């Protein structure tokens, strides 16, 4: 089995950090763009895609800055994270996504994130 590797993607967005954080850290926000339905209970989020449910726990977060999840079925050191940064010069909001994938699957995973972020941008009006 090949080792999964960390990769990062950056998306410039035209919205406030507070609004973006709401979209990446709450069941209502994530249900708008990330999965068909999202529920959370005691820091464990259940993501439903066409009847398939995957669960992830929140391992760390800082309001309006970042939230890190770990899939319950994944290795302990793996996670996916939404981090909100601001550029120094233009003060533009940047969403930085960190995720893990097999080396030969990084391109496909990146394209999937691109598709999902386009949906989020549409819903945000950003």
TrEMBL record:
Coiled coil: none annotated. InterPro entries: START-like_dom_sf (IPR023393), START_2 (IPR045736). This is START-like domain-containing protein. SUPFAM superfamilies: Bet v1-like (SSF55961). Residues 1-126 form the START-like domain. Pfam families: START_2.
């Amino acid at each position: 089995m090949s080792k999964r590797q960390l990769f990062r993607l950056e998306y410039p967005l035209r919205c406030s950090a507070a609004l973006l954080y709401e979209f990446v850290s709450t069941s209502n926000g994530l249900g708008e763009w990330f999965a068909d339905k999202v529920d959370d209970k005691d820091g464990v989020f259940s993501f439903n895609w066409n009847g398939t449910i995957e669960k992830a726990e929140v391992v760390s977060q800082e309001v309006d800055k970042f939230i890190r999840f770990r899939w319950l079925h994944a290795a302990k050191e793996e996670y996916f994270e939404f981090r909100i940064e601001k550029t120094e010069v233009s003060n533009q909001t940047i969403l930085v996504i960190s995720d893990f994938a097999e080396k030969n699957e990084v391109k496909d995973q990146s394209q999937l994130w691109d598709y999902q972020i386009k949906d989020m941008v549409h819903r945000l009006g950003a």
